[in-house]
Amino acid sequence: MRDGGRNLDYYFNSVQKSVSKVSTFVEVDLDGLEPEKLQNHIDRVGKYFEEMANKTNGVLTYYYRIDPEVSDTVKGFWYTDIDGEGFVEHEVTDITLYDTQDTSKLVWFTVPKYKGEAIWLPPYITDNLGRRVISYNVPIYYERQFVGVVGIEIDYSTMAEQVESIRLYANGYAFLSDAEGELFFHPRIDVTQLTEETMPDVPDGLVTDSTFIRYRFDGVDKQAAWLPLCNGMRLNVAVPISETEGDWQKLIREILVLSAVVLVTMSLFTLYYTGRITRHLEELTRAAEQVDNGNYDLDLSYDRNDEIGRLTNTFKRLTDHMKAHISDLNKRVYIDSLTSVKNKGAFADAIDRLQKQMDEDKSNLAFAVGVFDCDDLKSVNDQHGHDKGDLYLKTACRLICRVFQHSPVFRIGGDEFAVILQNDDYRNREALIRQFERTRLEICASAQNRWEQVHVAMGVAEFDPKVDASVIDAVRRADKVMYTNKRARKEALE
Questions:
Q1: In the chain, what are the domains?
Q2: Span 297-322, pLDDT tens digits
Q3: Which among 207, 298, 394, 456 has most CB atoms closer than 10 A?
């Protein structure tokens, strides 16, 4: 759950940072409200905003709308990416047709205007396009006068995919709501078709400050919990209670039962061997208490070939099996099911570890980040089917693993991969980059079908302590290089 919440926060923060950077640029660049100055300002902002939007995943629209009270000739701009083929300019909404005092209309404009602060808005149907979105918007001021709003709208389906990817046990799921219980997304309920009258109630515990709650839904007893997200929403997870009592919980119960048997048996033995076995009984009791508290690293020293020794060895074997089982479960959480490389959660953990090293002593930290994006995956899926799209992704993944075979490879998105280069791969990064392109061309030349080819854009950035304030900065630079490479490849084909 925490990994899912962290991924959502990372995604929402990327949108929020992009809009914040644009709003800062806008207020620094704005030098007057005369029509000519305002239009030149709009042109400059448009170029900067385009760059920010292209770096931000899942953007459906971005806009800078001027208040009609400021100018009736300079309206701003509105760009949309409806089909995923790139942003195109769209005619801006005619605000003069609406009552801007009514904050239930044109929420992306009226709410930030009258609240006077940057704000995440809950899902709504965007004007003219009829698409369900969420958005982050910032009001713009010039010499304390409200000028307009800059913002980004995210396609509701992009957020839904992020939440739906969170899987817990066999029948567990995640959903989004607010603190008052209004549903924003639910994998088993079409929230977009609900009205205020048909909106189901969120269980009472999930609209309080209580983090965990048990409730009954559709005849099934469930355990639920929630985490706050940076955009004001709550990420909720719900799991059938029957599933939470899985294999490792069963093993714990067996260990506790065995511990009880051990304690009873030892109590009988103390009648005959009080002086000799008391110390070992206490040791087993403490071990049982540690297991009950979730600590399976036990230090049981008694190894004689008698009743106490056999019980001690049995207890140790059971705890070793428990540790191995839990370790196996933890590993599965961080593996991508399609490609068998590490997933986005594992990438976030790797970034966190590097950040800790950087915080301790960044002068000795040497690594590079590679970011990869598969071209034409949507086209392969549409023309040949998703099974061929999966083969395309697996081929791309094998290419990356083959070249960067000494570095961890991560699948961080639907068609996006990343590697962290250290040690020999870091020192040989230039040669590996050249080898990557050679190997890619060899695969394409020998491929008989389109989905057996690999067209992958790559961006590599070396961590520079003089430039990068954090590890994420190096990731962003690699991402920027990748998008530059992607655009260059596209232009070359055109």
A1: 2-154 (3.30.450.20), 167-243 (3.30.450.20), 247-333 (no CATH), 344-493 (3.30.70.270)
A2: 666 666 677 777 777 777 777 777 66
A3: 456
